[in-house]
Design goal:
Length: about 260
């Protein structure tokens, strides 16, 4: 996978930044007519995007997400919810996929947070309807030379989520390499209660979600940086983790059949 796309960190000033997309070749749009929620009394309809297919190298940039791929197929749900009239329903990207997902913006005095991310040859994001009927990300599938990484603050005397924070030390990084990775997604606990409504309703705000269950298969390599004086490496056939409870299990030899 091509991991050379530029990374950056999110700032508080970018909370309401709109999504922008650039592409090399073509964009095919499937439009439908939906009720005009701004003027419900007039029973008018307006055109809306149902599906968009980007061909050629494309790049998407948003407040909590950077995304790049050789082809992208996005299906949009028209929710009839005035607070979020359109939301992501399904996403499928292929060819040198690069995803950078940003955590909530840090306090101005804190160091910028590094983006979590994933690279793969195929990346799929599935959703399920939320309590308000608006689809929310529920499952992520990645295939083909997958690399997934995330950062966490350095803490001394750490047991689970406890421990003393050491802001002057580099963040700890966990990286997983595998042919296939699947993750169940759930909303992160919110700490930015003062965030703008736009930052909370963005349909591609993947930085607001975390893996509630994570599984890598097909021969796995795990690297842990800044946990000890030297790089920690573990290999296995499969890796099964539940991040919210800090539980993880490695099974089998790396070359064991799937």
């Amino acid at each position: 996978a091509n991991a050379s796309e530029p990374a950056r960190t999110a700032s508080a000033d970018e909370a309401a930044k709109p999504l922008t997309v650039a592409f090399d070749k073509s964009l095919d749009l499937d439009l439908i007519n939906i009720s005009d929620l701004k003027h419900p009394d007039k029973k008018a309809t307006v055109p809306a995007v149902r599906e968009a297919v980007f061909s050629g190298r494309m790049k998407l940039d948003g407040p909590t997400l950077q995304f790049a791929a050789n082809q992208l197929d996005v299906r949009i749900a028209n929710t009839r919810n005035p607070a979020a009239p359109q939301a992501l329903e399904h996403l499928l990207a292929t060819g040198d996929v690069v995803v950078h997902s940003f955590r909530n913006a840090a306090a101005p005095s804190a160091k910028p947070a590094q983006p979590d991310g994933i690279t793969a040859q195929r990346f799929e994001l599935q959703t399920t309807p939320g309590a308000d009927g608006v689809p929310v990300p529920s499952r992520m599938l990645a295939d083909g030379d997958v690399t997934a990484w995330n950062y966490r603050p350095y803490k001394t005397g750490e047991t689970g989520a406890a421990g003393k924070a050491e802001p002057d030390k580099p963040e700890r990084k966990q990286t997983v390499y595998a042919p296939h990775i699947a993750a169940a997604l759930s909303p992160k606990p919110r700490t930015d209660t003062g965030a703008s409504p736009a930052s909370k309703t963005t349909s591609l705000a993947l930085g607001d979600f975390q893996a509630s269950h994570f599984q890598a298969t097909g021969g796995v390599r795990i690297e842990l940086e800044n946990y000890a004086k030297r790089l920690i490496i573990a290999t296995a056939s499969t890796f099964d983790a539940t991040p919210p409870t800090n539980q993880a299990v490695l099974n089998g030899a790396p070359n064991a059949p799937a």
